[in-house]
Specification:
The chain is an alpha/beta fold and about 120 residues long. About 20% of the residues lie in helices and about 40% in strands. It folds into two domains: about 1-55, 2,3-Dihydroxybiphenyl 1,2-Dioxygenase, domain 1; about 65-120, 2,3-Dihydroxybiphenyl 1,2-Dioxygenase, domain 1, CATH 3.10.180. It has helices at about 15-30, 75-85, and strands spanning about 5-10, 35, 40-45, 50-55, 70-75, 90-95, 105-110, 115-120. A hairpin with a 5-residue loop joins strand 7 and strand 8.
Length: about 120
């Protein structure tokens, strides 16, 4: 039986793309690198891992970047999104309050993957 998601891996095409992704997620989103070795970097959130690695079968940006979307929780969506805009992300949707009470913002990471920030209301 499945008991939860323990990790997500995002593949990229080369070491240069991987380093850009690592810098983006660590410097701009404030994630701490858990492990790093050639062709691989991992971030840890409790028992959950966000992994990024080089894969020989990846030759280009995602053809359909909306197919999979990673959602990251934040306590200050406006501040974090402002930092990401300064970094130069492709903005899909600026922070907006949803009908259910929380906030959502959507953008692309350096590899073209669609990512969302979520801020839940207490």
């Amino acid at each position: 039986m499945v008991f939860g998601v323990i990790g997500v891996t995002v593949w990229t095409k080369d070491e240069s793309s991987l380093r850009a992704m690592e810098a983006f997620y660590s410097e701009q989103q404030g994630m701490d690198v858990y492990s790093r070795h050639e062709g691989w970097v991992s971030f840890r959130f409790g028992d959950m891992r966000l992994n990024m690695g080089v894969h020989q079968l990846i030759g280009h940006a995602p053809r359909d970047p909306y197919r999979t979307m990673i959602n990251f929780g934040t306590n200050n969506i406006v501040e974090l999104f402002g930092r990401l805009v300064q970094w130069g992300v492709v903005v899909i949707r600026p922070p907006e309050k949803e009908h259910w009470g929380g906030w959502v913002a959507t953008f692309q990471d350096p590899d073209g993957n669609v990512v969302q920030l979520l801020q839940m209301e207490d």
